[in-house]
Amino acid sequence: MEGKIFIEEGKDGFLCIVFAVKQKRDVNGLTLDMIGLGLDALYEPRIVSGRYESCVICSEKIGIKIVAYQQ
């Protein structure tokens, strides 16, 4: 799997560590892996603002977002 990582600052100081991967199946697989590790999903894979992505919660102020940059 190939990808990029960066930080997005959201509303109210919420930070997302963003993993940008190539394909939807990578988003699905990583999301399932993180849920399997016990992280709670803020939202499961879906299209948000034209991007296929998901988000899991690490703490009250930090989330991990997984985004496919190719559809």
Protein architecture, described:
The chain is an alpha+beta fold. The protein has a single domain, classed as 2,3-Dihydroxybiphenyl 1,2-Dioxygenase, domain 1. It has one helix at residues 24-36, and strands at residues 3-9, 15-21, 40-48, 51-57, 62-68. The longest helix has 13 residues, at 24-36. The chain starts with a strand and ends with a strand.
What is shown here, in short?
By secondary structure, the chain is α+β, with helices and mostly antiparallel strands. It is built from 1 helix and 5 strands.
Core attributes:
71 residues; alpha+beta; 2,3-Dihydroxybiphenyl 1,2-Dioxygenase, domain 1
Secondary-structure topology with pairs:
Elements: E1 3-9, E2 15-21, H1 24-36, E3 40-48, E4 51-57, E5 62-68
Parallel strand pairs: 2-5
Antiparallel strand pairs: 1-2, 3-4, 4-5
Oligomer: single chain
**Count of DSSP strands:** 5
- What's the end-to-end separation, in Å? 15 Å
| Overall helicity | 10-25%
Computed structural class: alpha+beta
Shape: globular
**Sequence stretches where pLDDT stays below 50 over 5 or more residues:** none
CATH fold description:
2,3-Dihydroxybiphenyl 1,2-Dioxygenase, domain 1
* CATH class type: Alpha Beta
The CATH level-2 architecture is identified as Roll
Which radius of gyration do the C-alpha atoms yield?
11 Å
CATH superfamily: 2,3-Dihydroxybiphenyl 1,2-Dioxygenase, domain 1
The succession of helices and strands, N to C, reads: EEHEEE
